[in-house]
Amino acid sequence: MSSMTSQKQPTFTSAKSISDFLEEKKITDIVVIDLKDKSSIADTLIIGTGTSLRHIQSTAEHLRKKLKEEKSLNHIEGDHHSDWVILDAGDHIVHLFTSETRSHYDLEKMWGEYKAKDNV
């Protein structure tokens, strides 16, 4: 008799799983900033750039649904006209920007060292 093991669906509990999801959705310039020794608000900031407002909103909505299914979504900021959307996933805070808005706020500079998505 053979035993079958069920494979779990990927979860969104790690910075890597979230950044991989964003990459699948064609979000670019994904970086992960480790906040563990810098702040108590979260373990990581995950920052990415969308190609348009529609792209940002669509990706945010898909991620919102995934996080909500896993009961990992605490809050979302930014409406369908916003060029910056923030998803609070507990240990991870995701920021999705247009390139102009990302350049203007420059969160990477504010928080210091970060890792490109491939180095997470």
Provide an overview of this structure.
With about 120 residues, the protein is an alpha+beta fold. The model is unreliable at about 1-10 (pLDDT under 50). The chain has one domain (about 15-120): Beta Polymerase, domain 2 (2-Layer Sandwich). The N and C termini lie far apart (about 40 Å). Strands 3-4-5-2-1-6 form a six-stranded mixed sheet. The chain is about 30% helix and about 25% strand.
TL;DR?
With 120 residues, this protein is α+β, with helices and mostly antiparallel strands. Helix content is 32%, strand content 24%.
List the helices and strands and how they pair.
Elements: H1 15-24, E1 28-34, E2 44-49, H2 53-69, E3 75-77, E4 84-88, E5 92-97, H3 99-105, H4 107-111, E6 115-116
Parallel strand pairs: 2-5
Antiparallel strand pairs: 1-2, 1-6, 3-4, 4-5
- The percent range for strand residues is 15-25%
Q: Assign the CATH class.
A: Alpha Beta
Instruction: Spell out the CATH superfamily.
Output: Beta Polymerase, domain 2
Structural class: alpha+beta
CATH A-level architecture: 2-Layer Sandwich
Envelope shape: globular
**Would you identify the regions where 5 or more consecutive residues have pLDDT less than 50?**
1-8
- Number of structural units classed as domains: 1
Mean pLDDT: 85
Helix content: 25-40%
Question: How many alpha or pi helices?
Answer: 4
Notable characteristics:
single chain, 120 residues, alpha+beta, Beta Polymerase, domain 2, 6 strands, 24% strand, globular
